[in-house]
UniProtKB/TrEMBL annotation:
Transmembrane segments: none annotated. The lineage of its organism: Bacteria, Pseudomonadati, Bacteroidota, Cytophagia, Cytophagales. InterPro entries: SusD-like_2, TPR-like_helical_dom_sf. This is SusD-like starch-binding protein associating with outer membrane. It comes from Algoriphagus chordae. Pfam families: SusD-like_2. It comes from the Bacteria.
Length: 466
């Protein structure tokens, strides 16, 4: 972040030194700075990065590495969050800092600010659930503060609830331009804000269920996603400039490095899950769907295992980020927990609807859906409801690895995660080493506060009390 800010400041100084010839060097037909909606659109382009990553898939054990297995076994190495701050978040903060200068010709300024706040909340929620305490209050100040303090995750959640409330309350009639996610539809943005609030509230089920229930109820009253048409989906194009990450890896590079894990296969194949045919291609040995044990290093012949399905690595394959099925699974769990009315009846209804919405989202063959739903392992059971809801949600979240990993950490399901060579699924990711040198005091304070002075992959973040 320091290097980026120095570059920005230097660029501004250079521009200031060359004002004498601005009249002949400035093209009046080219804007000198990005507009509010252009900055928001640029921030949206980073959304696919929240999902399109082998590391995220390893954290949730959706995929098994076939080539460089050791790279998937949770090495005690750091992961950078700088790209979030230097890219989408600084773009969004620039919009929020420029409220008085935004142009209403691109849609109501109130709506531009609301979308910027919703996206900011989403990105920071993603960051804090991966690393724990992260900079927020002091972050995104550019040259005014190169060494931001780390906010506690508890305070971040409180701030994000407030940010989403502000955004939802500020929305007015009228669409905005350059909206590559919802085409300016503010009703969908409002429902997204409510859904994010609801999902965040459910994260508190173990650490602060009272607050979780309160925020969950508020979110439902405000409105949440109510169909797959409202899903937050990053739509790749059949174009080299905006193509699916996995297409570049598999179709262009010819890398058969990722097989469907046995962890996932064991939850799908025995019950004939129709989504399996979308998620995976059958192996090339006998046409069967065979999962590869996560962390397996012996006899990895990619001919023998089910690799990623064609629909998943297609050039224009979408990335599903926040979905109607997630909202329904959340309501099913909330009903079972007693957070909302209806008890088991409401839990079962939402659970069944969630599975159906998931099938529809993924384009699965639902001709045999009634038979699938009637199986003992799938049919709602009051005694095993939380496990069923959590497991089916994890199956639904395929390829959104970081979100699947977060739900696994919170619930403990699915219950068949493996620990190759004793490498358990991590509880968090490690801060980038650069912070130890460039932001020493704040880094040390955050590590001491959370982990007693020594960080690792297995320190618990605030809401993970299991």
């Amino acid at each position: 972040m320091k290097k980026l800010n120095i570059i920005i400041v230097t660029a501004l100084l250079l521009v200031g030194c060359n004002n004498f010839d601005e009249d002949i060097n400035i093209n009046p037909n080219v804007p000198s700075q990005a507009s509010g909606t252009q900055l928001i659109a640029n921030a949206m382009l980073s959304l696919s990065g929240l999902s399109s990553s082998p590391q995220g898939e390893f954290m949730s054990q959706y995929l098994s590495e076939t080539q460089y297995v050791n790279a998937s076994l949770y090495p005690q190495s750091s992961t950078s969050f700088y790209w979030l701050y230097q890219g989408p978040l600084i773009n969004l903060q620039t919009v929020l800092n420029s409220a008085d200068d935004l142009s209403g010709t691109e849609g109501p300024v109130e709506n531009q600010l609301a979308v910027a706040k919703i996206l900011k909340a989403y990105y920071i929620w993603h960051a804090t659930d991966r690393w724990g305490d992260v900079p927020m209050t002091d972050a995104l100040q550019g040259a005014d503060n190169f060494t931001p303090k780390y906010d506690t995750q508890e305070s971040i959640y409180t701030s994000l609830f407030g940010l989403l409330d502000e955004a939802n309350a500020a929305i007015v009639p009228g669409s905005i331009t350059n909206d590559i996610m919802y085409n300016g539809d503010m009703t969908k943005w409002s429902k997204l804000a409510g859904t994010l609030k609801m999902l965040m509230a459910l994260r508190l089920s173990e650490v602060n269920p009272t607050l979780g229930k309160e925020k969950f109820t508020e979110a439902l009253q405000e409105g949440v996603l109510d169909s797959n048409s409202g899903n937050l989906v990053f739509k790749h194009l059949a174009d080299a400039n905006n193509q699916n990450y996995w297409f570049g890896q598999i179709d262009l590079q010819g890398r058969e490095w990722w097989a469907i894990s046995a962890t996932l296969m064991d939850k799908m194949k025995p019950v004939g899950d129709p989504r399996l045919m979308v998620y995976a291609n059958p192996n090339r040995t006998d046409g069967d769907y065979t999962g590869l044990v996560f962390g397996e290093t012996i006899d990895i012949d990619t001919e023998k295992y089910a690799l990623l399905g064609d629909a998943i690595h297609a050039q224009d394959a979408p990335v599903y980020l926040v979905t109607y099925a997630q909202a329904l699974f959340a309501q099913a769990e909330a009903a079972k927990l007693g957070w909302i009315a209806g008890g088991d009846n409401a839990a079962e209804e939402n659970y069944n609807m969630a599975i159906e919405a998931s099938m529809e989202q993924w384009g699965a063959d639902t001709s045999s859906l009634p038979d699938f739903m009637a199986q003992p392992e799938i049919a709602y059971s009051s005694d095993n409801a939380i496990e069923q809801i959590a497991t089916q949600r994890w199956v639904h979240l395929f390829m959104h690895g970081y979100e699947g990993w977060a739900e696994y950490r919170r619930t403990g399901y699915p219950n068949n995660m493996v620990a190759p060579d004793g490498a358990d699924v991590p509880n968090r990711q490690i801060y980038i080493e650069t912070e130890q040198f460039n932001n020493t005091d704040n880094y040390n304070e955050a590590v001491q506060r959370q982990f007693g002075g020594s960080e690792s992959l297995y320190g618990n973040i605030w809401w993970d009390v299991n």
